[in-house]
Specification:
The chain is mainly alpha-helical and 1004 residues long. The longest helix has 23 residues, at 102-124.
Length: 1004
Amino acid sequence: MAVATMVSSAGGLLAMLNENHPRLKLHALSNLNKCVDYYWPEISTSVPMIESLYEDEEFDQHQRQLAALLVSKVFYYLGELNDSLSYALGAGSLFDVSEDSDYVLTLLSKAIDEYASLKTKAAESNTEAVEVDPRLEAIVERMLDKCINDGKYQQAMGTAIECRRLDKLEEAVTRSDNVHGSLSYCINISHSFVYRREYRHEVLRLLVNVYQKLPSPDFLSICQCLMFLDEPEEVAQILEKLLRSNKDDALLAFQIAFDLVENEHQAFLLNVRDRLSVSTSRSQESGQPAHNDAAQNESPAASEDVAMTEGPHTSDVTVQQVDQSEGIYAERLKKIKGILAGETSIQLTLQFLYSHNKSDLLILKTIKQSVEMRNSVCHSATIYANAIMHAGTTVDTFLRENLDWLSRATNWAKFSATAGLGVIHRGHLQQGRSLMAPYLPQGGAGGGGSPYSEGGALYALGLIHANHGEGIKQFLRESLRSTNVEVIQHGACLGLGLAALGTADEDIYDDIKSVLYTDSAVAGEAAGISMGLLMVGTASEKASEMLAYAHETQHEKIIRGLALGIALMVYGREEEADTLIEQMTRDQDPILRYGGMYALALAYRGTANNRAIRQLLHFAVSDVSDDVRRTAVLALGFVLYSEPEQTPRIVSLLSESYNPHVRYGAALAVGISCAGTGLSEAISLLEPLTSDVVDFVRQGALIAMAMVMAQTSEASDSRVGAFRRQLEKIILDKHEDTMSKMGAILASGILDAGGRNVTIRLLSKTKHDKVTAVVGLAVFSQFWYWYPLIYFISLAFSPTAFVGLNYDLKVPRFEFLSHAKPSLFEYPKPTTVPTTTSTVKLPTAVLSTSAKAKARAKKEAEQKANAEKSSGAEASSAGSSAGKGKSVSEKDGDSMQIDSPQEKKVEPEPSFEILTNPARVVPAQEKFIKFLEESRYVPVKLTPSGFVLLRDLRPTEPEVFSLTDSPSSAASNTSGSATGQQAPSSTMAVDEEPQPPQPFEYTS
């Protein structure tokens, strides 16, 4: 450095380069290299001379590399990065990747980008033709090795994935200090940043192999990866291994099964289930030859044959024939089959939604009174809102109390009213068919009822059994075959598509196809959608025959149904679907281009793929058809739901478009991708649209706003309260036009959906997309053309519940902590009868417990009035609400005494709340959930919501169970509402000590 400090110009050193003696040239080069940072403008004039030294063969290697390094640095300062990189490669080992200078860091990132793009090109063109410079490869490898040696494992993993160097990825993962952490990091990266589906599968395959080599593999993550890879065989092997192990492993197997069920991939789950039954029949061949044929012929029946839990007589026989471990295995197998078939989780969800139902009938009453009878659209909308509000709760009080009002629905409104029962009873698999029996087509010619209610009933059966249609498929097929009334065919097709969602059953496909070929517009539309539902994500070649028929037929309805059906077929296939998408988006028929938008949306669902977004934005501003433009914007919501924060930013300009269709699309895109997040930017974007000048834009904005605000309380965002008041105002306003009124009615249904206990979730907690939910919203967004499809939104509802289960899959009493103020996540306050039109709502101040008690008393009195006619079902929700409120206020000691109204003491609100299993845990609350240290139960997997298996640390003590009441028993129990209000609290086991008595008036 001494030289560099003395010289004031590089001229002397540059002159030395013209000397003949190689030693002088070497001296000049090494000193120039030291002072290049200061004198590069001067040196840049002599670059050609230094380049010639680098190319001179007579020089020794070191000297040429030095010349290359010098030229590279000069080019770097001149901003010519490509030239700089090519000379840096010539500098070989003199280019030191560990040097911490701007020059090295810039060139390294350039080298990595270059290398990654070359490898990607090679992969995409499926040839090794793209030559990668071995020197470039060497630099990237040195860089990766340096990261691994320095312990920067995440950096190494990210770079390795980007450069498609799976060998280095494996090395980084296995050498890292926290292998499990590194693996889950890699899984996240592969979902968020790897855009090509085949390559993502290669990465996951590698991760599975690394997982399986670990001494204590994380089976939860392995099975999630295998589900992405679609390998039911391996999942079944892992589950069987765990089931045959000790009790803790069996709990883990149950947890894995629940996690897989949450992803709602019916065909995959049934595959796993059937693989399990094959393995058990093999193990029983030695033990019980008698049962052998049965075990192979009908797997579900066989597993019940070996049940230990059902009845004493079967278990005795079994234990004699099969030794102890086989018996335990058979019992566990029966449980896990129930979970995989979805029966267990559906049953528990049903009980949770029923017992925690907090829907407010007064809202519906207000809507019903303010809607004129002549307006059939709003009449239907009220029925839709009721169904959505009570989705899955089995509470149909509102319908029973207003039978005469309901009976005014005619034709398709009657179809929708009947189908609504399917949403209310969704998941009631045991009694689904008997519930719908009065409306179903009766045997014999012509049947008894109106074809509209019969068609609606078949659609309802599909909604009840959506994605779990094992038991009902056959009945729906027979109903479809035995009718030629198009309305009944319409209902039967939709029902079949829902029940057999994604099973790709050829026979059912042929039944539906024969309906399509009758060329009836009404039945054909449903048939097209139904084919898509049946074949969802299979990308089968049947899409081309559907496309061909869409070109032949004259009916717009059929073309639209087929267009959506084809889009559903390519669900999640990403780049595999490109040729079909290209074909549809270039079609002359705008309806097929419209289908092309959905195909893009569903093929790239949740990938945030840049190419897909670019294509959609292009169509959104350039297509000649308004329908296509609207759908292109709406489709952005599906592509972006894994990164909801991005959506408002991307569609913000479109939401100000002059074209109302584009504004409507922008509203729904935000609604779909930000559903249930309560995202502030999303609400800000939708607010101006709710008072748009065009009626249907207001409708879309109101529905979207309700989707975004689902399960957000007024305490966490004050705009929720304002929005509720706005809805009420629109509904009560006589001069508001029908479209926005319908939007407001539907929005109030979605806002309180499922008894205020469900939200719209498109991603499961393991970041897997929920097929049913995405498909449900895609078909729901068709309600623009056909209102009965509104019910598909119920497929996207998932309960916001924490349900802890013990080894017997029962729900034990188990307390845990929500480390946030209770008011942030509590249920909305029940509405009161408005004295004037402007209802005065209290500001969101922290109320004292006395005011809470009064509010509760008022609600009780109101529900008493409402539930007079109805069964005890209503009353139970009120009783449990008293129990819930108590668990919050327990911490306030004796503050339950009623204060006199003058001295309202505002007590400080507790900063936490004890929740009792099963509890409502809304998505925003999940980060505050803590498990108590000295608790009797420990969760197998630390997750704040969903179905969690609990390990019992004190198995000898007796257990107390919650959720003992099931909807069927309580609904039949028509006790007086006064007793009904006290009874459920004991069965629910919400509280240890008895409740304080309700306020009442004594009448002899």
